[in-house]
Amino acid sequence: MKQLNKLAVAVAIAAISGSAFAKNSPEDANNITWKEKYPDQYASWATTAESDALDDILAEDPMVVLMFGGYGFAKDYNKPRGHHFAVIDNIRSLRTGGPMTATEGPMAASCWGCKTPDLKRMYDQVGEGNFSEKKWGAWGHEMANSIGCADCHDAETGKPTPARPFALRAFAASGQKFEEQEPNIQAAMTCGQCHVEYYFNGKDHKNVKFPWDGGMDVDSILAYYDALGFKDWTHKISKAPMLKAQHPEWETWQQSTHYEMDVTCIDCHMPKTENASGKEFTNHNVANAIDAFDQTCSNCHDTKAELVDALASAKQEIHKAQIAAEEVIVKAHFDAGAAWEAGATEAEMKDALKLIRHAQWRWDYAIASHGIYAHNPQLGLEQLAKAKETGAEARAALKKVLAKHGVSKVTYPDYSTKAKAQAIVGLDKTKLDAQKKTFLEERVQKEWPTKVQF
Ligand code: HEC
Ligand code: HEC
Ligand code: HEC
Ligand code: HEC
User: Fold this and answer.
1) Does ligand 2 have an atom closer than 6 angstroms to the CB of 29?
2) How far is the CA of 373 from the centre of ligand 3 (A)?
3) Which atom of ligand 3 is nearest to the CA of 252?
4) Could you report the per-residue pLDDT of 149-197, keeping only the tens digit for each?
5) Which of 116, 56, 117, 113 has its CA nearest to residue 86?
6) How many helices and strands, by DSSP H and E, does the chain display?
7) Where residue 182 sits, what CATH number does that domain have?
8) What pLDDT, in 10s, does the model give residues 115-137?
9) Beta carbon of 270 within 6 Å of any ligand 2 atom
10) The pTM is what?
11) For this UniProt entry, which residues form the secretion signal (predicted)?
12) Choosing a second label site near 112 at 20 to 30 A (CA), which of 83, 101, 338, 367?
């Protein structure tokens, strides 16, 4: 009878949380709790704070501002850095705005989705849907820990286990049920719970959903969003119904040679290392994958120097293809803007706007993970070429619309700097900064556990 009750409780918990895993206790979300028992793992995890460089993508490449015109990523977009900064960077980003109350601000609560073990703690406490339905600013007072132990380990078994029920649902729906995977894939799934493409499902409490029902390649996800009629935003200049791809590392890796050869995120990003007394443990820093050369890469690659060279040239090629695609897509947005101004109708614009949406989706899927040159350069180059081609088709279609309305030449503004590009898409950076400053000083510093300076 006792056994049966326990089983009933377990089933009930699984039904509520959407997963069959033990709940971590509230203390488990706190990284310090794990320090004494696992000093080596804790210390190597803590070194993610050393990867602190803030690289401003918009300053480096102002065309990106125009690509995201009308959307948060035009306000602020940096390269990823150490896991230590996930909560800090989310609070500081201009994208999350300056909500002074629980009910204002541009972002939904699910924006905390890939930042902190406090997410699972809150899901357990209030329910996933109740959490997600609120605004981002409603939960800052609960977000005390950056990406940590309880995001990736079940506190009871210690095993690498993704804490996010929405990820476990998506893995299962894509035919890779967590419980049925080999241990090395289960370990990689701890990364895949966050390093993926996702959206907030308006039909399900704005919970996080991975758009994998039809597959996770670039075309299947695009077909999924098209069939759903989903858009992340309407472009400020072209009025195209746009999609934002979010870091699809898991998806692009699944289509790579390394995946076929059973080399996972963990093999490259979390090599084994030795502590001062010679005991082996897993390095939890996750950056600098190339440092794993001797243990991992050397099984198949000849020398580190060769690999460093290959990475550098792949990076350069991807960058070149990225810029080439941007040059076309940015002009397509302006061409569409000019066509609207000249009096084009929705019916005339429909096909061209769809081409812009598709071109930019391919561009974003290829580059949004920032590591495509290492993970799958072939896929990256192929999609960037298609993005450029599709962008050119959009421009050809728009040329006809423009001609019909008597426009033979479009003039393009100067978008050579981030500030100029932001002004073009109607952003008032001074105002956004001031709003953020007040929010950080008056709300975050006073009421939230993670303190962030302006
Ligand atoms: C991003 C996911 C992730 C985070 C965060 C994380 N771990 Fe791990 N951890 C793993 C994975 C994956 C493995 C298994 C590595 C393997 O199988 O090669 C692992 C292995 C371990 C092991 C087994 C022994 C070893 O060193 O291989 C311990 C103990 C451990 N982690 C403790 C911790 C502690 C303590 C924290 C927090 C300070 C932490 N982990 C944070 C993913 C994570
Ligand atoms: C809870 C969500 C989450 C999990 C789990 C997670 N990541 Fe991350 N990762 C992030 C976020 C968010 C950032 C960006 C943080 C920032 O810039 O503030 C990031 C950044 C990174 C970076 C850039 C680090 C740097 O120093 O530049 C790498 C590499 C990375 N993650 C690899 C991994 C690997 C490998 C795993 C699995 C072992 C993993 N991540 C698990 C969310 C996650
Ligand atoms: C074959 C080895 C390998 C595999 C497998 C691999 N990576 Fe990487 N990853 C790299 C290398 C190399 C880089 C380039 C940066 C570097 O040298 O550390 C990189 C870059 C990244 C970056 C960008 C870091 C930045 O600061 O811009 C992220 C994030 C990342 N990887 C996450 C993952 C995740 C998640 C997986 C699994 C789904 C994965 N990687 C699989 C080798 C690998
Ligand atoms: C199990 C074997 C294996 C291991 C281990 C391995 N690789 Fe590879 N790697 C390959 C193969 C096979 C290719 C494809 C070669 C080709 O097509 O020319 C490749 C290609 C690459 C490329 C070229 C880009 C691409 O994807 O085609 C890079 C960069 C790379 N590997 C980095 C790494 C790094 C970094 C590590 C270690 C962290 C590593 N590899 C570990 C087998 C491996």
Assistant:
1) no
2) 9
3) 38
4) 999 999 888 899 999 999 999 999 999 999 999 999 999 999 999 999 9
5) 116
6) 21, 6
7) 1.10.1130.10
8) 999 999 999 999 999 999 999 99
9) yes
10) 0.94
11) 1-22
12) 367
